[in-house]
Amino acid sequence: MIHLPGRRPARAFRTVAVGVGTVLAANSTPTPLYVAYQERWGFSATTLTTVFAVYAAGVLAALLLIGGLSDRIGRRPVLQGSLCTLIVSYALFLAADDVTWLYCARAVQGLATGVFTGAAGAALADLHPRADHRTAGLVNSAAMPSGLAVGAVISGALARWGPAPLRSPYLVLAGVTLVVLAAIIAWVPETVAAPRLQWSQVLRLQPLRVPPETRREFLTASVGVSVAWAVGGLYLGLAGSLVKELLDGSDPFVTGLVILSMQGVAGAAQLTWALRRGAVADRVASALGCTALFLGVLAVAGALFTGSPPLFFAGSAVTGTGFGLAFMGSSRRITHAAPPARRGETLAAFFTVAYLAFSVPSVLAGLLSTRFGLVHTFYAFAAVTALLSAATVVRSLRPDAERVRSTPGRCRQLDRRR
């Protein structure tokens, strides 16, 4: 059961939002460093993508097995515990002297991210000062790409100009994460009514289930987020390799700028759309986002074919716009539809779908690039993404249009209620 306090301080809401951005910044920090790791330790592109896959596997394991934990024991202990686990992953990165350490660090990082993601999304919905679940969903979805962009740029800058390029990014992250942890301890109230923290509750694994009343919205939202996160995963896993292919050399700061041009634009696109309200706006956002994904990946493929860096960055920006709108539309729909008592579990299930889409295409691209080359692999990926994006546009709009034709009065009432 969710306890909704009479006064919801905005400070608590903002603290959790900053926490989401910090956790996602940690996830993108290794991206500009991958090529340096690869050159130092001499591993293949396939190994590079399996390091990325281990991270995604950790996220999925956490979401699938304990994603609804915050519904049972409370938001605060889950948020605090996952941030402590994230700090452990930084220690593993700092100690890394071969690729085995990278596997361990990314697995721990994935576990921490998976646990934090579901709990933070639910906490934002619980803590919004006006109990506006759509705005809470917007903040959650905007904080993610914004954090990814900031983490990649800072990491790339420190790797290019700072001391100890493979260590200083994690030291900075550790300091920021400790500050966020202290703020959550001091300012974020518990929103789950009188949970008793028992180890039997923590250790009891509970596979995720989507509430029956949410399944229609869940399926529609999952389609949009799958296409968006498949593209996002490819960028995070292979951005350094794409930069090396296009510029005939590696530069961690340029890799960070590539992530910024994609994920930073994604966050800005979501905020630009923020004033639009209602279920129709969410559906249109998903459709427009998938259209932009369609155009963006084709532009990036064209840039790789012509060797044009300006076209590459422009295509990345269009792709980022698509990522942001498609993710935002899906996230807002599922946040609003989830019942309060099972919000953490429902959001964990939603992000399980997202991270599956995030990881599987990237791993396949790494495997295929070893045999067919990175550029030809991206051409194939762009073609598949374009087809799926076009199909998702139809999926995002047609079912709702059919329901409006069949029950127009009921749908108008639902839209007014939302």
From TrEMBL:
GO terms for molecular function: transmembrane transporter activity. InterPro entries: MFS, MFS_dom, MFS_trans_sf, MFS_Transporters, Sugar_transporter_CS. PROSITE patterns: MFS (PS50850), SUGAR_TRANSPORT_1 (PS00216). One of its GO terms (cellular component) is plasma membrane. Pfam families: MFS_1. Keywords: Cell membrane, Membrane, Transmembrane, Transmembrane helix, Transport. It is found in: Cell membrane. It comes from the Bacteria. Residues 1-400 form the Major facilitator superfamily (MFS) profile domain. The chain crosses the membrane at residues 12-29, 41-66, 78-96, 108-125, 137-158, 170-188, 218-238, 253-275, 287-305, 311-328, 348-368, 374-394. It is a multi-pass membrane protein. SUPFAM superfamilies: MFS general substrate transporter. This is MFS transporter.
